[in-house]
TrEMBL record:
This is Glycosyltransferase. It comes from the Bacteria. GO terms for molecular function: transferase activity. The keyword Transferase applies. PANTHER family: GLYCOSYLTRANSFERASE (PTHR43685), SLR2126 PROTEIN (PTHR43685:SF3).
Amino acid sequence: MNSLNPNDVSYWPTVSVIVPIYNGEEDLPDLLDCLTQQTYPKEKTEYFLVDNNSSDRTSDILAIAVEKANHEGLKFYHLTENQIQSSYAARNAGIKASKGEILVFTDMDCRPYPNWVEEIVKPFTNPSIGIVAGELIALPGNSLLEKYAERAEIMAQKFLLEHPFCPYGQTANLAILRDIFKKVGIFRPYLTTGGDADICWRIQRETHYKIEYTPKAIIQHRHRSHLKSFQSQLRRYGCSNRYLHELYGVKLMQECTTQDIVLGVSRWIVQDIPKKSIKLLLGRADWIDLIRTPIDLIGFQARSIGQKEAKLPQKAKQIEWL
């Protein structure tokens, strides 16, 4: 791909943005607003909003949004995936309907910066790059858990790009060359978690293409604000660990025991609180640092439970093809 000449967009690659959506009535207005503000040439961009069997007002909101966007010269498409309850099946529906040379993925709880598409496309000027991961930062929130997630950089791509088995990026902010899917297949439709790593690993193991990280392609992600949803998210991460272990043999995380919890809480009370209180008084720490350890332990326990209870369904091993 040639460099993006701002004076001649005719040579810019075509892009398909794909977003799986499940019960997104609260998130959709902000997401749609972000998508309509993208600086990438609208004649080169199409957007696929895939409803994955929502039970709220998602369908109505999408219908109105598509009509409005099309009236403004934007190519928005409302698709449905009602047969398989999986974000990866929904993404596959978008992939199969798309025509773009580059497929760009995000989620309904994300808020892309206006130059997001433009920035995530730029690394593809290097012919060895097949996957590009953009940056994920926290959408500012008021709850304790949102502030914790921001401080802990819960979804930062940099940690995944350092994965000891093989680097990968999350589909909350990921771009892949369309032609690659013809070589390795698209997402495993019955997989419910771990598909981000799976597709990136298949590409890197079965082709010559590499993954690149671009910090300029920024998306704000809305973190969980309630304990129940936070624990559910971490259990899903644990489930992902188990699935990827069964698919690739990657090492499982350490199991969280009662002894781990007791030792962790004891260390927090005896060591962390005194030290971090002093740092807080000196302006060298944030108040969230004082309670980070117990939240870490809650997350550790939830992730451990998810990993222990999960078992990869036979169907989830299936790869769908273009």
